[in-house]
Every structure is written in structure tokens, then in C-alpha cells.
Specification:
The chain has 275 residues and is of the alpha/beta class. 40% of the residues lie in helices and 25% in strands. The chain binds adenosine-5'-triphosphate (ATP).
């Protein structure tokens, strides 16, 4: 059975709790304001009218400035968020590499956490028992299997999360940035596994700011701005469309102007007394 993703007219509103401006003139009045003012709830639209179609073989890049809605769209596609409007149809098993630490229990042991996370991924106890040795080996945590998660370093926890999340090949892979954290040895291992999983996936949706990697991996690109699709098409065109957005911002123009001045000064053309 072939896999696909079909999102049509997706909109997402989220509740946002806003606290009145508490900037006060004195420490006491700040304390008083903090104690008495209550945040009020308002709804915010973070995705609007987003449509996307991906078929087998597609590798879709999600592009957009910080806060454009890329991670939120990945969460909607993964099923973690229910859209407020529109529909999402997905055929095929999904693996979301969005938050490696999600679902961990600090007081449970490493071994127990493997079972907890694997259950959340839909694996049976038997399947997890079969995968356990390779997960511990990949994460380098064999000697810590019975230690509480709380005593692991953040790098060790990240290794464990990565090892569990990528232990099984899925049809559809949803990723937020190409994985690149950890010490040098682990990064090499993780990169090799990611490459393998991407090759083995029928569909990949990947949010990233790394144009070179996106050109190598993806055939399609979807550009989001303020939660709306501004472009969807071949990756090179999508990257150009995204560049056009951020190159039109005043911040980008100001930075380019500063860089031009610095270059001219370095080349000895900069003002001075001309002598
Ligand atoms: N649960 C939430 N409640 C309220 N606002 C949220 C929530 N999740 C995301 N947002 C807001 O939605 C917007 C989009 O966030 P999102 O994380 O999807 O952006 P992004 O494109 O992935 O950004 P980045 O490139 O910085 O990772 C942001 O303004 C963010 O503050």
C-alpha cells in the first residue's frame, strides 16, 4: 500500500495566556502586580490555510523564518496537534523526530524508559525487548541500564532519545532540523543512521535552515511565512522564494549595508582623511 500525506486548508488556533504589562516603578509594586494580576486567555492563529501533498519518494523541506510555523506544521502532520480547521490524511507509519526527550520519566530507569517510549511509539513489549540490547548499545548506555534517568547527563539522555526514536524504520519521517548534537563520535554514528533512515523512508518532511543539505536531500520545498504557505514547489525554487522573503526584511538590508561598509574599510577604501 502506498504512503502519502495530504493536508488541506489546515488552520491551527492555540490558546495563549497573556499577562498585563507589569513593568513597575519599584520592586514592591512589581511584586504586588505579579501577585494580583492574572493572565487572560486569548486565541492565536499559528497556521492558516496550509495545504501540502507528498507522495512516495518525496522529500519535502519546510522553510521559513523563526516562528513561521514549521515545527507546528510537523506536529500537526505527526498527529500530535489536531488542526482547528481543514483536514490531514496520512497513510503509512510515521516517525516524528521532533523532541528527543519527549515522554521520558525522570524517576524510571533507562531500561524502563526504553519500554515507556517504545510503547508510545506503538511497539509491543516483545518487540521492545528484542530492540533493547541494540538501543542500549547504540546509545552507549549498557552499563547504565538500571540507573534512573535523572542521573544521566543531558547528552546521554539525548543519545537515548535518538537511539529509541530511530530504532525502527518507518514509512514517513518528520524531522525538525537534521540531527547534529552530541560528541564527535556520536554525531558520526547518528548521521550514518539518519542517512540510512531517510533512504529507507517513503516520505520525508524536514524543517531546516541548511540550504546545502536541503538541496542534497529534498526534491520539494514548502515555504511558510506567518503560518501561511507562500510557496510550494521544486526545492531550488522554494529556496529562492524563501531567500526573497528574508532578503526583503529591514534587518537583512541593514546587516548587508554594515557588511559592505566593513568590507570597504578592510580594503582601505573607507573615508579617513584620504591621505
Ligand atoms: N503551544 C503553543 N502555544 C502558543 N504559541 C505557540 C505554541 N507553539 C508554537 N507557538 C507559536 O507559534 C509560532 C510558530 O512556532 P514554530 O515553533 O512552529 O515556528 P518555527 O517555524 O518552527 O520556528 P523556528 O525556526 O524558530 O524553529 C511561534 O510564534 C510560536 O511562539
Amino acid at each position: 500500500m502506498s504512503s502519502y500525506i495530504l493536508a488541506q486548508g489546515v488552520g491551527l488556533d492555540v490558546p495563549n495566556y497573556v499577562t498585563a504589562d507589569r513593568s513597575a516603578k519599584s520592586f514592591l509594586s512589581t511584586l504586588l502586580a505579579a501577585a494580583t494580576s492574572r493572565p487572560h486567555r486569548e486565541f492565536r492563529t499559528i497556521l492558516e490555510d496550509v495545504s501540502l501533498e507528498a507522495r512516495e519518494g518525496d522529500r519535502v523541506a519546510l522553510l521559513g523564518r523563526n516562528g513561521a510555523g514549521k515545527t507546528t506544521l510537523l506536529r500537526v502532520l505527526s498527529g500530535a496537534f489536531q488542526p482547528t480547521r481543514g483536514t490531514v490524511e496520512v497513510r503509512g507509519s510515521r516517525q516524528a523526530l521532533l523532541n528527543l526527550g519527549l515522554g521520558f520519566h525522570q524517576e524510571a530507569t533507562v531500561r524502563e524508559n526504553v519500554f515507556l517510549r517504545a510503547a508510545a511509539m506503538g511497539l509491543s513489549g516483545r518487540e521492545t525487548a528484542g530492540l533493547l540490547p541494540s538501543i542500549l548499545e547504540f546509545s552507549g548506555l549498557e552499563s547504565c541500564a538500571n540507573h534512573r534517568l535523572a542521573v544521566l547527563s543531558s547528552g546521554q539522555r539525548m543519545r537515548l532519545g535518538f537511539a529509541i526514536s530511530t530504532s525502527v524504520q518507518h514509512d514517513i519521517m518528520l524531522m525538525d532540523e537534521w540531527f547534529g548534537a552530541g560528541d564527535a563520535e556520536f554525531v558520526d554514528k547518528a548521521r550514518a543512521r539518519m542517512t540510512d533512515r531517510v533512504r529507507g523512508s517513503k516520505i520525508v518532511v524536514l524543517a531546516s535552515h541548511n540550504f546545502q543539505m536541503l538541496r542534497e536531500v529534498c526534491n520539494l520545498g514548502l515555504v511558510l511565512d506567518f503560518g501561511r504557505v507562500v510557496h510550494f514547489g521544486p526545492i531550488r525554487e522554494a529556496i529562492d522564494a524563501y531567500k526573497a522573503i528574508y532578503q526583503s526584511t529591514p534587518e537583512y538590508r541593514a546587516r548587508r549595508a554594515r557588511q559592505a561598509v566593513t568590507r570597504r574599510l578592510a580594503a582601505g577604501e573607507g573615508g579617513g582623511d584620504g591621505g
